[in-house]
Amino acid sequence: MSKANTKAVKKKATRRQKKDWVAGYLFIAPVTIGLFIFYVFPFLQNFWFSFNDVNKFNMATFNGIENYKQLFHEPDLLLALKNTFLYAIITVPIGLIISLVLASFMNSKIKGKGLYRTIYFLPSVTMAAAVALVWKLIFNGDYGILNEILGVFGIEGQSWLTNPDTALFCVMLVGIWSGAGYNMIILLAGMQGVSKSYYEAAEIDGAGPVQRFFKITIPLVSPTIFFVTITGLIGAFQVFDTLYMMIDMDKNPAFNAVKTVNVLFYQNAFVYGYKGYAAAISIFMFVIIMIITVFQLWGQKKWVNYD
Amino acid sequence: MRKNLKRLTAVGLTAVLGAGLLAGCGGKDGESKDGKVELVMSVWDSDQQPVMEKMAEAYNKEHPNVTVKTQLTTWSEYWTKLEASATGGSAPDIITMNVLHVEEYADAGILMDLTEAEAESDLKINENFPAPLVDGYTVDGKLYGIPKDFDTNAVFYNKEIFDKAGVAYPQDGWTFEDFRKTCEDLQAAGLGEGVYPTAINRNSGQTTYISSVFANGGYLLSEGNEKSGWGEQATIDAVQPWLDLVLDGLSPTLQQMADTDPDAMFQGGQLAMYFSGNYMITSYNNTLEGKYGIAKRPTFNGKDTDIINGLAFSVSANTKHPEEAKDFALWLGSEEAQKIQGESGVCISARNDCQQYFVDAHDEVDCQVFLDNVANAELLPHCKVTSELSQVEKKYLEPAWKGEISLEEACKNIAKEQDPILEKMNSK
Question: Where do the ABC transmembrane type-1 domain residues begin and end (chain A) (predicted)?
Answer without folding.
Answer: 81-296
